Amino acid sequence: MLNHPDMENEQNEVTLQVADGGSMTAYTSSPVNAAGKLPAIIVLQEAFGVNHHIRQVTDRFAKEGFIAISPELFHRTAPKGFEGDYADFSTVAPHTKALTNEGLESDLKAAYQWLTEQKNVDINKIYAVGYCMGGRVSFLANAILPLKAAVSYYGGGLDAIANKAPDLHGKHLFFWGGLDKHIKSENIHTVIKAVEAAEKDFITVKISYADHGFNCDERASYNEAASKEAWAFTLAFFRD
Which of 131, 174, 135, 148 is nearest to 238 (CA)? Predict the structure, then answer.
């Protein structure tokens, strides 16, 4: 695994065809002038779209040597480039409610296929990471795609798809906020119990002093210490 924190990135926008006949825009970020086959990662958005924060996270992974792609998961109901308002969840609610596991499966497979078609991607080192809503989608990705590993940051609704634990391909890392009122202890217990029962490799981390959305520096719940610690842990997890 590469480690080039000062590596220059190349950002692009690509259009992917999905199995249901539609098209999906995705933001990509890749290291420039990196030699050899590189690891790759699917970065999965919060409920607020592939916004500035998610693009910034995608760029951070590229600076660490990953070919990174972040698909716009609301492409069936929202305009290209849609960004919701962190202060008003009603701006995104219609789009989150319209998501289906079947649609997400098509989207994930399209993003994965794009990565496998890049000549400089090591297809044995493809990962996923997701935040908030994307934390649930990252778990789904690990169940659908032959990923090496995946990470879920405060994934709301993960307990609703815990029955997919037996299908996980790679090891999974979960981050939870101890102050998070959106995700209750019983929700977390359901997820971890399912992964344990499926005898899958996992790590679960609850940061006692962090709230929901602690990784996003554009949200009021941002916690700098927790964000830095989780980032370091995430990179170490992928490099294991």
Answer: 148
Q: Is the pTM of this model over 0.85?
A: yes
**How many Cβ atoms sit within 10 Å of the Cβ of residue 147?**
24
Q: What is the pLDDT of residues 110-154, one digit of tens each?
A: 999 999 999 999 999 999 999 999 999 999 999 999 999 999 999
Amino acid identity of residue 170, one-letter, is G
Tokens 């940061």 belong to: 207
The residues carrying an active-site annotation are: 132, 180, 212
Between CA 61 and CA 65 the distance in angstroms is 7
Mean pLDDT of the chain: 95
Superfamily classification of domain 9-239: Alpha/Beta hydrolase fold, catalytic domain (3.40.50.1820)
Whether residue 191 contacts residue 162, with contact meaning beta carbons closer than 8 Å, is answered with yes
Any idea what DSSP says for residue 85?
B
- Domain parsing of the chain, residue ranges: 9-239
